[in-house]
Structure formats: structure tokens, C-alpha cells
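Extended Data, panel c. Modelled sequence:
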Amino acid sequence: MAEPTETSAPAASIDAALALLKSAGYVANRPLATVVFLALRMGRPLFLEGEAGVGKTEIAKVLASALGRRLIRLQCYEGLDVSAALYEWNYAAQMVEIRLAEAEGVTDRERLSEDVFSERFLVKRPLLEALEPHTEGPPVLLIDELDRTDEAFEAFLLEVLSDFQATIPELGTVKAEHAPIVVITSNRTREIHDALKRRCIYHWVDYPDALRELEIVRTKVPGADESLAREIVSFIQAIRQEDLFKVPGVAESLDWASALTELDCVALDPETVSDTLGVILKYQDDIAAIEGSRAKELLDTVRAELKAAE
């Protein structure tokens, strides 16, 4: 594993990590700030698991913004392979070069091979880009939704992250002068192998409690009415207790706050809730379970709780 580099400097303490995240608009709790601090300090990848929409990907974006580093994103998917993640050759351009060389009468095959397998024909993918030097400092490498790939890609990634280097047979080994800041996310649709997790600082990103979610809404949707923001957060917290196929995440809370603000709402009512459920729920069965009488029941409970808390 790579030695710690200058990436540790921006977060000299857990409080500094909290401030760093907050400076870019991310409302973190202390456990999350602790693992961010440790990842930066120790030069280790940060492995974030949690439900979709809880803000895992946003952490990488915020780190890049707060540190002034380039964000390099590898979006994972089923069937992802080395050519899409590390590098591939521009075969069309190579063929043109070969045809031109033949037309010019070039017969030195070794020289031609060196020409067509030179860096100018190399198509760099996210992992290779992250290993290269950057003027603003080591980049933030986001490996998003790793659970969508297969075990073969996991094994390949483990090799790259162990020494932060990769071998291109035609050119040699590329090794990072300074290790990138690596953030790996997983929605846990399958288990990631322990061998990769052991090389990371692990954290489960859960849904925020009501106080932190209210602060998130205030930060991200400053135009939302204060009383409306409280009702939104309380309703979202309540709906997460329902038996739904997919409960809304923080991203949906923010979308709902923005949508209701666009509708000039200052308070929730059953009709508005039912009409806008498609902003926070993405499955028709879930919408059908909540709209109408159940939405009114939840809203009545939310209002009673908010009134009692005053």
C-alpha cells in the first residue's frame, strides 16, 4: 500500500475534516469525518457502503472541490473490463498510421510497431489518468458502484490499488508519484471481497437523523421555507419506516424540497403530498401504498409531533 503523501495535509484533525467537508456544502457527522481524516492521513482508499441516495458519491465530489483537485470518475457497470477502466489502443488511428507507412514504403516492422504502440495512440481511461501526475496535486479517484462489476474486475482493481501502478505491455509500468485520493462506493447489491475491503478504510453511510437531514436541506435548498423544511424532513423520516420497495434517500429529500419550493408551497397538505410523491418514490407500488389516506395519516402524525416538540 502506498505511503501517505501530501494529501494528508488538508485534514490535520477530525475537526479539520469536518470543516473541510462543510466548506464544500457537505453536512457530515463525526464518524464520517473520522474515516475521511484517516483515509487522507494514511493514504488509504475510502470504502463507502450504503443505500442508494445517502450521499456516498457526493463525498468524493466534495473532497475534490474542497481540496481543489481533479475528480476522476470510474462509473462501474456489469461487464466493465480493463479496456474501459485502464486503457485501450486507438485501433482506427493505428490502422491509418500503418497504411500511411506502407504507402511511404516503410518496411522496418520493429520501428513501425514502436510508432503505432506509442503514447499518442493510447486512450487513457480513468484508472490510468488517476496514476498520472497532476499540477493541482493527486486527483480524487471515484470508483462508483463497485458492486455492479464482477469478481474478476475486483481482483484487477485490487492489484492496481495495492501499489498504485499498472503495466502496459507495450510501454512499461506506470506508477503514481503520489497516490490519488481513492473513494470507492457500493450499494451492496452484492458483497465485495474481503481482500479489497481490508486495504480500505470502511464506513457504512446510513440515512441521517432528522436534525442532520434538516441541516442538509437548509444547506442545499436555502430557498425552502423553514417550517416547510421541517415538515419535509419529518415526513421523509416517517416514510422511511414504511414497508416500501425503495425508501427515499437524502437526494430525494432535496429534490422534494426544491420541487415544493418551485410550487411556492409553505406547508404540506395531503393533496400536494399525493401529487408530488413521484419526486421521492420511484416505484408505482410504493406510490400507491402512500398516496391518499395513508399520506394524510402520516402528515397528521408529523404535524402532531412537530407541534409537541415546539
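The two ends are 52 Å apart (CA to CA). This feature is highlighted in the accompanying rendering.
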